UniProtKB/TrEMBL annotation:
Cellular compartment(s): Cell membrane
GO biological-process terms attached to the record: peptide transport
Annotated protein name in UniProt: POT family proton-dependent oligopeptide transporter
CC annotations in GO: plasma membrane
TM ranges: 30-51, 57-76, 88-108, 114-136, 148-170, 176-195, 229-246, 271-292, 304-325, 337-356, 368-388, 400-421, 433-452, 472-493
Organism (species): Undibacterium pigrum
Length: 505
């Protein structure tokens, strides 16, 4: 069976095995992350640890930073010893073991759990991303950016359901159940990958496992490799910049939402919000179920167990979603929780990703630097919406009424920007990296996020200062102008970058 013989949405069906595996891993990551700070700051009487917000966010910062630092090690280990497939399976089980530790309410098990998730993610994340690129060869090269965009939709489907379900269950039912749910889906995801991996043929095997039929990669000449590594550096620089501003937006928008948004949701507007909210939950569930049915119809005979596990997972999601909706309609909704805006990002991403994927394949496929440039301009436009929305707030004000429309518009633009940068970047790493350093280069890519997060945490401390001295609007204006400027610079670098990429589009 040649990999890529069956297609779904014009892509090898094996892409969707990766899609669903990554979806469960991100479900566990984002789901647990949504609970972490809440759990730590909740009083002991309510089952939390009663930490101060500052301590809790400091631990959160360390945790999210380390999760994106270890991929560099995980990528290296896969390149040298394990191969990417074994790394994904091992990483998945280590992550699940980490979540299992969180079920026990002692500091020792809790920190061990966090450590295991960090280590497991290091093995899992860069290597699953590397396998995606190997599904695209000369024959189907044109689908690579689109394929990574669909894969990224899997990332965000996981984030979406994880934040929604683990967050909801942890907060409303019990913390261990929330953490446990994250771990349970990770186990199902890892088993599903393990039993479905035959679909990849020789792709992602360690050298020691290869049967001899694997295509031997011929490496480009040293000066070409050096040039391509330079191109990776330029992409990395702008990506650090993107994630830095994006993280900054996430943090400040939550404050913005909590302090300034019109929160009086009673009567008709409350009902309207509930309906919008329900549609937001149901639409991605329908899209995913449809994808699953496609995958099941195409590959069921070959990978029955793997697919049966997928059916179980999606079935469970439906049950949880329906249960959550029922409860929501039973509760009196009087305000929009600030965290709701965070979920909007993954919602827009799931909805927009198929369109972007098609656009790159069929309609408009400029080179990487142009896509990155457009992404940065879109990021700036999102901040422009916020700046405009905040212009009625006087300097130093603590609460004010501002329409939610500006926040929604900001997330819409930011998500489009993310789609031009994050999945496209993964695609370029897969094209530019020398084959023997593939895992390591994906590790470098995620290192960008670790650096950006650290920087965002550092400059975040100036938000209050700038918004009190000038105004919140000025703060957002800074983030409007800088990304747009950076985007234009990158577009101007297009020809130089194309030379460094030596024929890679
Ligand atoms: N949303 C992306 C993911 O979880 C973010 C990764 C990154 O590089 N920041 O995969």
């Amino acid at each position: 069976q040649t990999p890529g013989a069956h297609t779904i949405l014009g892509h090898p069906d094996s892409l969707f095995v990766l899609f669903f595996t990554e979806m469960w891993e991100r479900f566990s990551y984002y789901g647990m992350r949504a609970l972490l700070v809440l759990f730590l700051v909740t009083t002991a009487a309510k089952g939390g640890w009663g930490w101060s917000r500052a301590d809790a966010t400091a631990l959160y910062g360390w945790y999210t930073g380390l999760v994106y630092l270890t991929p560099i090690l995980g990528g290296f280990i896969a390149d040298k010893i394990l191969g990417s497939r074994r790394s994904v399976v091992l990483g998945g089980f280590i992550i699940a073991a980490g979540h299992a530790c969180l079920l026990f309410d002692t500091p020792a098990t809790f920190y061990t759990g966090l450590g295991l998730v960090v280590a497991g993610t290091g093995l899992f994340k860069p290597n699953i991303s590397a396998i995606v690129g190997q599904l695209y060869t000369k024959e189907n090269e044109g689908g690579r950016d689109g394929g990574y965009t669909l894969f990224y939709m899997g990332v965000n489907s996981g984030a979406f359901f994880g934040i929604l379900l683990c967050g909801y269950i942890g907060e409303n039912i019990s913390w261990p159940m929330g953490f446990g749910l994250a771990g349970a889906f990770m186990i199902l995801g890892a088993i599903q990958f393990y039993f479905g991996q035959g679909i990849f043929g020789d792709i992602g095997l360690a050298k020691s496992q290869q049967t001899g039929t694997a295509v031997v990669e011929t490496e480009a000449a040293p000066h070409i490799v050096a040039d391509r590594l330079k191109a990776i550096c330029v992409f990395s620089f702008f990506t650090i910049f993107f994630w830095f501003a994006f993280e900054q937006a996430g943090g400040s928008m939550t404050i913005f939402a909590a302090d300034y948004t019109d929160r009086n949701l009673v009567g008709t507007s409350g009902m309207l919000f509930k309906i919008v909210n329900s549609l937001m939950t149901v639409i991605p569930t329908i899209i995913l179920t449809w994808l699953l049915i496609k995958l099941f119809a195409g590959t069921a005979k070959r990978y029955l167990l793997s697919n049966a596990l997928l059916v179980v997972c999606i079935g469970l999601i439906w049950v949880l979603v329906i249960w959550m909706l029922q409860r929501e309609f039973g509760l009196d909704q009087s305000s929009v929780p600030a965290t709701w805006f965070g979920v909007l990002n993954s919602f827009f991403l799931v909805i927009l990703a198929p369109m972007f994927s098609k656009m790159w394949e069929k309609h408009w496929n400029p080179s990487g630097p142009v896509k990155f440039g457009v992404g940065l301009v879109l990021l700036g436009l999102g901040f422009a919406a916020l700046s405009y929305g905040a212009s009625s707030i006087p300097a130093g004000a603590k609460t004010a009424s501002v329409s939610m429309v500006f926040l929604i518009a900001a997330y819409f633009f930011h998500t489009m920007g993310e789609l031009c940068i994050s999945p496209v970047g993964l695609s370029y790493i897969s094209k530019l990296a020398p084959a023997r350093l593939l895992g390591l280069m994906f590790g470098v890519w995620f290192l960008n996020t670790a650096i950006a997060n650290k920087l965002a945490g550092y400059t975040g401390s100036y938000i209050d200062h700038i918004s009190e001295t000038y105004s919140l609007s000025v703060f957002f204006l800074i983030f409007t102008l800088i990304p747009i400027g950076a985007g234009i610079v990158l577009m101007l670098l297009n020809n130089w970058m194309k030379k460094k990429m030596h024929g890679i589009h």
